[in-house]
Amino acid sequence: GVIERWELQKAQTSGQSIEQDLEQWQKLNSDLCDVTSWLGRVLPELGRLQRIAPSTSIRDIEISIRKLKEMQRTFDSFKCLMISVNLSARHFLQGDSVELQELQEALSSANHSWSQACCGLESWESGLHSALLQCQDFHEALHLLLLWLSQAEDKLCAVNTDPSASQSALLQHQATLVDLQEELRGRVRQVSSLQEINSQLLLSAAGEESVEAKEKVHIISTKLDLLLQQVAAALLSLQGKVVSQETCSTGSELLGAGPETLGSPLLPHKDAETQRATVRQPANTRSLEEAPPHRPLLYRLFRAAFPLQLLFLLLLVLICLAPLSDGDHSCTLSNNFARSFYPMLSYTNGPPPT
Questions:
Q1: What share of the chain is helix, strand, coil (3-state, %, to 5)?
Q2: Which residues lie on this side of the membrane: Perinuclear space (predicted)?
Q3: Are 150 and 239 found together in one domain?
Q4: pLDDT at position 263
């Protein structure tokens, strides 16, 4: 029982290994076929590109550089595939079968073609590098850019940003800076193209002429970026000074103006409407406006009844002053009335003792 189970497990493991080997074999043949097919197309193309005479135009060199970059990316992708094919083939190279011999021959041919393709790519890149150094347009472009950037730097230094300058002078300097900024931005694309050429053909070059051209491209790109920053900062500062001068001049005009001048422009529309409304008013409306204002109703009633109230008050005073009668008991009544205001004691058991 134990031996049978061991044999069964060994058979299953062997079957799985054979299945994995079969899948790996099929993948190896497929990848090798793809690499061989691509190498069969790229080798004639590289030979044709190497036979083309180097151009003296910087535009043609830029086009060739783009093709070179695209082909280098393709080489990088197939390089990974070539490494994978060589690593996978080591597992199947132990044997004498016909299929293994064919695999060895195909792999050897693919490696040889790959070496030829890499040499052709390097040769094409070297030819482009030589053509670039012999291109007069390239050297003239570098020289003209350096000269133009020097002139642009002189223009920037000539701009007067003194706040005590007149407003017209500041506006003129502002227009000069705006034009200079547009010119600098127009050179960005040309400098970017030179940087691309430098990174592709001059970055790893070791010749004296190559190093000199590489340094010029670096100086041009650095100076262009620096000038763009300086012009933007100077333009921002100058705009602030122009606005400050306009504010100061406006405040001086307002302080020097009279009250009529200050008040008249504030409400021109309303004053005009008021004048037109006054002209259109009829005569009777003006007379009503000139009449005294109406008094309140309570005030008018009190004013009309005041004589009657004064008369009633006088009669009341006379009645109070007149005696009630001429008899003797008038004094008794008066005394009783006076005594009523004093406190009195009441005794329940008769009069108090004397």
A1: 80, 0, 20
A2: 325-354
A3: yes
A4: 44
Task: Mark 55-86 as b/e (b = at least 16 C-beta within 10 Å).
Answer: beebeebeebbeebeebeeebeebeeebeebe
Do 126 and 157 share a domain, yes or no?
no
| 245 inside domain | yes
What is the pTM for the complete model shown? 0.57
Q: Is residue 276 part of a domain?
A: no
150 and 114 in a common domain: no
Q: What is the DSSP letter of 342?
A: S
The residue type of 101 is: Q
Tokens 């783009």 -> residue: 66
Q: Which of 73-82, 150-159, 220-229, 329-338 has the lowest mean pLDDT?
A: 329-338
128 plus 227 within the same structural domain:
no
Using one digit for the tens of pLDDT, what is the confidence trace for 94-114?
666 777 788 888 889 999 999
Q: Say how far apart CA 35 and CA 125 lie, in whole Å.
A: 22
- At which residue do the structure tokens 């506006």 appear? 171
DSSP assigned state of 56: S
Percent of the chain past pLDDT 70, that is, above it, reads 65
Q: Residue 72 belongs to what H/E stretch?
A: helix 58-89
Question: How many domains are there within the chain?
Answer: 2
Torsion of CA 129, 132, 133, 137, to 10 degrees: -170
d(CA 241, CA 174): 10
Q: Which residues are CB-contacts of 22 (< 8 A; sequence separation ≥ 6)?
A: none
Alpha helices in 136-207 (DSSP H): 136-158, 167-186, 188-197
Whether 100 is in a domain gets the answer yes
Which residue segment(s) compose the domain that 53 sits in? 2-134
The helix (H) or strand (E) run that includes residue 2 is: helix 2-51
Q: State pLDDT tens for residues 40-64.
A: 999 999 999 888 877 778 888 888 8
- Long-range contacts: 340-347, Cβ < 8 Å, 24+? none
- 10 with 68, same domain: the answer is yes
Residue that is last in its domain, among 230, 251, 272: 251
